[in-house]
Amino acid sequence: MRYRLFGQTGLRVSELFLGTMTVPDATECRRIVEAYADAGGNVLDTASAYGESESMLGSVIDRRDRFLIATKYTLSRDAGDPNASGNHRKNLVLSLEQSLRRLRTDYIDIYWVHIWDRHTPIEETMRALDDVVRAGKVLYVGISDAPAWIIARANTLAQWRDWSPFAGVQVPYNLLTRDIERELLPMAESLGLTVAAWSPLAAGVLSGVVDAPDGPRGSERVNLRALTARDRAAAAAVRAVAEELGATPAQVALAWTRSRSAAVHPIMGINNTAQLAENLGALDLTLPADEIRRLESAVEFQLGFPCDFIAECEPSSFVFGDTATKVDGR
Fold first, then answer.
1. Which residues form the NADP-dependent oxidoreductase domain (predicted)?
2. Would you please indicate which residues are annotated as catalytic (active-site) residues?
3. CA 77/CA 73 separation, integer angstroms
4. Which of 28, 222, 247, 308 could serve as 204's disulfide partner, Cβ 3.0–4.6 Å?
């Protein structure tokens, strides 16, 4: 396992993050965490809303300082309480204290805003996050599932007001879900943010179970009846490339996600150590350019406006003059 810096910080994070939402029990959790650590992994991702995930993780971590614990807040702690959810200060403080108790620790390495709350001013969220960082209860902050313009505005405010900025974004990303390539990924690369990619196997669709002879295996929960023609085309392309390269479909799907940008760190949703070992094999797999094109041609994707429009205009002499094609970009 190699390491990259977390956003515009000096924190070293491993190439693959470990998601703990789907770990079945504490015994298996301990095995998975130990195997992940033995491979060099150090980021453990959970959330306040992932059932018993935080408590389970807190019960099995023996070498606390060797790991980067990442958890999230926003989602409701009490469905009947209007202030038990959202990104306002009250929910942030109470959610953080709950997570600290469950995780049996006195600080969180990476604290993610779980989803954008349109009712809370981003100024309030950023100031409240900065307060818990200054208090030593949180070391770094990030945001999940939010528009690019909100994230850019939040970090501009943080820069102007000397608050702790977001160092990373967490988004869904896989061969079937490439929406982040329109705005979020270019923004993250421009601002130097780490991209934690959840569902890199598209909820199991790209893991090889779709066209397996015996159907979905083990704890995979792929509803075959709900699959679209696009889903099946992507799964078939991934399996074909895997067979040619002597890899598994899951490894190919993860390798594709990692090939798109050095900023991307896939979050592996793991159920058992065998699945972890298979996913870790993606670290040794480099997809040839031809295979990347083959995978992407199997499923239609368009950037849309304004990205495609700008790309078409860029070489135009009408837009940028006769020397448009003679300018070398950064």
1. 16-299
2. 50
3. 9
4. 222
pLDDT in tens, 139-181: 999 999 999 999 999 999 999 999 999 999 999 999 999 999 9
Token code pair at residue 109: 């390495």
Dihedral (CA of 284, 290, 295, 301) sign: positive
Residues 6+ apart with CB under 8 A from 44: 17, 18, 20, 33, 36, 57, 61, 67, 68, 69, 70
pTM summary value: 0.93
Tokens 């108790």 label which residue?
101
Whole-number Å distance between alpha carbons of 289 and 271: 31
Write down the pLDDT at residue 212: 63
Distances (CA, A) of 103 to 61, 109, 287: 9, 12, 38
Q: Note whether 62 and 34 are within 8 A (CB).
A: no
Which domains does the chain carry?
Answer: 3-299 (3.20.20.100), 302-330 (no CATH)
In tens, the pLDDT along 35-60 reads 999 999 999 999 999 999 999 999 99
Strands (E), 153-263: 166-172, 194-198
